[in-house]
Amino acid sequence: MVDFSRVQKELQECNRDINVSGISVNPKSDNLTNLIGTIPGPIGTPYEGGTFKIDINLPDGYPFEPPKMKFATKVWHPNISSQSGAICLDILKDQWSPALTLKTALLSIQALLSAPEPDDPQDAVVAQQYLKDYQTFASTARYWTESFAKTSSLGVEEKVQKLVEMGFPEGLVRSTLEVVGGDENMALEKLCSG
Amino acid sequence: MENQDEIPVEPETESSTFISAYEADDWSNYKDSDVMLQQSAIFEEDAAKSPFVGDKEPLSSLEAEYKSGSPILLEKIKVLSEQYAAIRRTRGDGNCFFRSFMFSYLEHILESQDIAEVERIKTNVEKCKKTLQGLGYADFTFEDFFALFIEQLESVVTGNEAPISHDELIVRSRDQSVSDYVVMFFRFVTSGEIRKRSEFFEPFIFGLANLTVEQFCKTSVEPMGEESDHVHITALSDALGVPIRVVYLDRSSCDTGGISVNHHDFVPASDDNDTSSSAAGGSDPNPNPNPNPIPFIVLLYRPGHYDILYRK
């Protein structure tokens, strides 16, 4: 049974200093086991300027068992699955303790964005790129931040929709937009030249 | 109960079925996290076969366990049986030290009805709370655990109501929703004490784990299931002001050839006037009327595990 009175207190405490930390946690539904956390991308990283949403699921044993957390926002990072958003972080596994909170866990995830650990990867492809070709990694991560983690990323979605309406498959549209750095006209040109 | 009987791996390990399974499975599909999950599932399954706190057993049951084992251990158990009558086993889930301490302490209070001791420890618990607040822990992270311990403490002494029965104490100690909360309470107290006196503990921790004090507390004290060492025992004993005797049952033998069983008493650092005691330490001829109280908590240590011992 989740300790709901504790969860309530955690939400209050976390959202009290939201202006300082930029980190918030809010219920997704009214049952308090499904929550959404928000963390700002750390300054000076490819994630700067992005707002990342984290899906939080509280298991019955919370706070003895760690909260289940994964990125709901797509992110390009060695320790986060680019497919599923799964996070490789010790405190979300065997190093969890009831002394930690949802907020401290989110702060740790934010710290992970600042300091990737490519030697203990969640996403092997990203980790390889990080180690072998940091420049490409950084620009891809930045592009993903632009595309998925910014409110203006709605712009990207509009571009995608527009190109899809022209008859191109969505997957191809997205990958092409990514290759050309989000430029709609260049993407169209590329898509047409096939 | 990590005895030798459980150490041998499954016989299949060496059979051909295993090898073919090994080749058939692509191990690159297994992530570290999967392996970890599986491993902890195996540990949990093993641990779940025994209750958090077992029944009191005569010391002969310990002897039976080593019947075909090391002669040194059998000799030592014989020596033990001169002083000790019984053992109470705790689950080998990494929380055994804290769980043994919990049961042993509450059982002592239940049997002795030592109200002065209860008042004394409550004062220390209040200090521990202040320590954690001072270290920046949010109240809601620890208050439930503190409240539950105080509740258990009050339930074993005569107050407005009669104390709970010994059977009820056992039932509660086996109930995860009580037992784990009290274990976590002790983990908070231990962590707070170590961090408060980080200069004192630092050299021990560095020697043990090559970690900073804060890292050590985060990784080896506060998570459930992390095993306890000298550092934990010293800190808990000091913080609560409760002496603890640990009796060591291992294969080491004395140079003289005679068999003896070593023990170590963890005697809490005097916490009266913490600051003045060091300054006035030498000048006070009688700082403690009973400098070496015999600990009423006696734990049996076998490498990797703690159980409770009962004197004759």
UniProtKB/TrEMBL annotation, chain A:
Cellular component per GO, a single term: nucleus
Domain spans labelled UBA: 155-194
Keyword set includes DNA damage: no
Signal peptide per UniProt: none
Keywords: ATP-binding, Nucleotide-binding, Transferase, Ubl conjugation pathway
Domain of life from the UniProt record: Eukaryota
Occurrences of domain UBC core (ranges): 2-150
InterPro entries: UBA, UBA-like_sf, UBC, UBC27_UBA, UBQ-conjugating_AS, UBQ-conjugating_enzyme/RWD
Known EC number: 2.3.2.23
One MF term in the entry's GO annotations: ubiquitin conjugating enzyme activity
Database matches in SMART domains: UBA, UBCc
Enzyme type, top EC level: transferase
Catalytic residues (UniProt): C88 (glycyl thioester intermediate)
GO BP terms: protein polyubiquitination
Record carries keyword Manganese: no
Family: Belongs to the ubiquitin-conjugating enzyme family.
Protein name according to UniProt: E2 ubiquitin-conjugating enzyme
Protein's organism: Lactuca sativa
From TrEMBL, chain B:
Keywords linked to the UniProt accession: Hydrolase, Protease, Thiol protease, Ubl conjugation pathway
Residue ranges annotated for the OTU domain, each copy included: 85-312
Record GO terms (molecular function): cysteine-type deubiquitinase activity; ubiquitin binding
UniProt-listed GO biological process terms: protein deubiquitination; proteolysis
Enzyme Commission code(s) on record: 3.4.19.12
InterPro entries: OTU_dom (IPR003323), Otubain (IPR016615), Papain-like_cys_pep_sf (IPR038765), Peptidase_C65_otubain (IPR019400), Peptidase_C65_otubain_sub1 (IPR042468), Peptidase_C65_otubain_sub2 (IPR042467)
Biased amino acid composition, Low complexity: 275-285
This protein's name: Ubiquitin thioesterase
